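Minutes, project check-in
Item: structure for the 230-residue chain
Input as provided by the requester:
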Amino acid sequence: MEQAATPQKPFEEAIEKIIARLRRAELPPNVFNVYRADDPQHDLRGGAAKRRENLRRYLKALRDAKWLLVGLAPGYRGARFTGVPFSDEHRLCLPGSCYDRTGSRAQPWREATAGIVMDLLGARTDVACWNLCPWHVHEPGSPLTNADPDAETQGYGLEVLESLIVRMFPAAQVISVGQLAASVLRGLAVNGKPANLVAEVRHPAHGGAEVFRKQMSDLLGITEDEQEPA
């Protein structure tokens, strides 16, 4: 007799639904769906599948997240190639880790913002990172650039974010990263109620690193000794 498949637990089921939603999103031409598409010029074979698995493994470790750190969109040096918000290949996809590189270039991609966030959070599992637009927005015809998502793309991303909060992190306190993310999150409603936005912090890029570290350290109670070396 064929053995029945083991039912998924609600949290794992929610992860699969989020990933499926990310994968099937129909996006404008200048928005690269990192969870569905492979770019033969810049991705290793099976890059999208690896990014989905990277995100799956990341989210599984965050069952008890108390904070949700939300930025605007993945950068081409960071989550574009890892599939994990606020991360880069240089720090996340270490030899022997459970995360795979997906970029085809010889050296792992390295992003300043990802480094600042990862060094600050370390191995904490009480902070989940996300982006308003979870797909990579670039300038038309230039895949290795960054651009801001338009209102339509933001709308797609907000639908995913609302599902993420409802299904996975209903009690998490939301922290916005940067002014653009903050302005959008102020108007976000979850189940008809304002999102639990408790703080707005400076984006670490363009000279904001020290302010970001100070604001986040105060919020999370991180001491200087706990921060990873830059």
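Outcome recorded: The first strand starts at residue 31 and ends at 32.
No further action items on this chain.
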